[in-house]
Amino acid sequence: MTCRLSRPSSLVMSCLFALFAPLAEASPDTDMARAAQILDRYDRNQDRRLDLAEFDALRRTIFNGIDRDQDGKIRAQDVAQAAQARGQHADGQRLMKRDTNRDGFVDWPEFKAQTQGFTRADRNSDGHLSASELARLIARLPAGLSPASF
């Protein structure tokens, strides 16, 4: 399969909505399309892959999308509400495992501290995520955390 990647003419809020709007059915083709959109938005050095810093920018968008009241804290109910708003189900318990100080919420440092997702997704261990590695990661994300959800 050939995936043609192109830069959008502008990155305005409507493009962000389109980037993170849920798609009706997940498939390898839609996952590759999402990966191409993510690269268009987050690949700052335009090498058609994401390094850890670029991936963190994507994760920040996901964090902010879950943190509905923008207080810098994600609670289990925030995950449930974000998932429900998109017709998905998630109770937030998986994410709450990142609450290392047990204060009842996950803040950005706790959310960001878990880099194993990047490491596991980087199948060839080159320190970057290619479009195919991103597509594979997207296909495996739990409800409520998918970049297609925001």
From TrEMBL:
Residues 1-26 form the signal peptide. SUPFAM superfamilies: EF-hand. The keyword Acetylation does not apply. The keyword Signal applies. Keywords: Signal. Residues 54-89 form the EF-hand domain. This is EF-hand domain-containing protein. It comes from Thioclava litoralis.
